[in-house]
Design a protein that fits this description.
This protein has 252 residues and is α/β, with parallel strands linked by helices. The chain has 7 helices and 12 strands. The strands form 3 sheets. Strands 8-9-10-5-11-12 form a 6-stranded mixed β-sheet, with helices on both faces. A 4-stranded antiparallel β-sheet has the order 4-3-6-7, with helices on one face. Helix 4 crosses helix 5. 41% of the residues are buried. It binds adenosine-5'-diphosphate. Adenosine-5'-diphosphate is lined by residues 38, 43, 61, 63-69. Residues 38, 43, 61, 63-69 line the site of adenosine-5'-diphosphate.
Length: 252
């Protein structure tokens, strides 16, 4: 049986920030000689990389480098042409559709375009992942209140997405990604639709989430974003990893 990706932990309120308390090590990710080919073109070319639990890893590179393909393989949205993608004890490329869908439910995923449901309030959007796993109303109410406090949107719970700014929409997206306490948070261009200042706020939130124990994988073409945080940076170009620098800053 695959090891669950959720931490068995809980959230504890501190005066400054709500801190995730991990009760087990977060995810280990292995790409083992992974290639992805479309129409004869190697979009990812024999990529091998290992990411330890608790790391914050940025995947950078120009448009078309293969960042989204990397993320899609990681979340099991596509399968590699060859090689293996392993997360904890899941070999993602070998999972059947129903196990894949269970696996995906355990991840926290943050999208560039937020992917919120427009007819649901902020509260309802964040509650949705818990509803589909059958949590009780009382558990949902408590947990949603906790994550809305983490992202600073307690006072927006009853608003609909149309009434929110871009930064607030992304905070809702992050709250929804955090609500089931994932050990692994994957953010694909999370600041791509935001102005630099709002993008910096969102990055600070991701850094806090990582400090609290979650593994964070960030795909971005935004050099400034990665320069600021100086964590591990994997640079892709034409489907290959051309550098893998720990605690470095992204250089064009
Ligand atoms: P990035 O996220 O770095 O911009 P992508 O992973 O989206 O790069 O794309 C890498 C390359 O793969 C691009 O040349 C893109 O056109 C190609 N590609 C991605 N998805 C598909 C697909 N479904 N069919 C054909 N080509 C694709």
């Amino acid at each position: 049986m695959p090891v669950p990706l959720q931490r068995g932990g809980f959230l504890k309120l501190t005066p400054l920030f709500l801190i995730l308390i991990p009760c087990k090590l977060p995810s280990v990710i292995v790409f083992d000689n992974v290639s992805k080919t479309y129409g004869g073109q190697n979009v990812l070319d024999r990529v091998s990389v290992e990411i330890s639990g608790g790391e914050f890893v940025s995947i950078v590179g120009p448009s078309g480098a293969g960042k989204s393909t990397f993320v899609s393989l990681l979340i099991g949205a596509i399968r590699p042409t060859s090689g293996k993608v392993i997360v904890d004890s899941y070999t993602i490329n070998e999972l059947d559709e129903s196990t894949l869908s269970l696996y995906r439910r355990k991840l926290g995923i943050v999208y560039q375009d937020f992917k919120l449901l427009p007819k649901k309030t902020v509260f309802e959007n964040v509650a949705f992942p818990l509803e589909i796993t059958g949590q009780s109303d009382a558990v949902i109410a408590k947990r949603v209140a906790e994550v809305l406090e983490i992202v600073g949107l307690t006072n927006r719970a009853k608003h609909f997405p149309a009434a929110l700014s871009g930064g607030e929409l992304q905070r809702v997206g992050i709250a929804r990604a955090l609500v089931h306490e994932p050990a692994l948070l994957i953010a694909d261009e999370p600041t791509g639709n935001l102005d630099p200042e709002t993008g910096a706020d969102i990055m600070n939130l991701l850094i806090d989430i990582n400090k609290a124990g979650a593994t964070v994988i960030l795909a971005t073409h935004d050099r400034e974003t990665v320069d600021r945080i100086c964590k591990r940076v994997l640079r892709l170009d034409k489907g290959k990893i051309v550098s893998d620098l720990v605690h470095s800053c992204y250089k064009a």
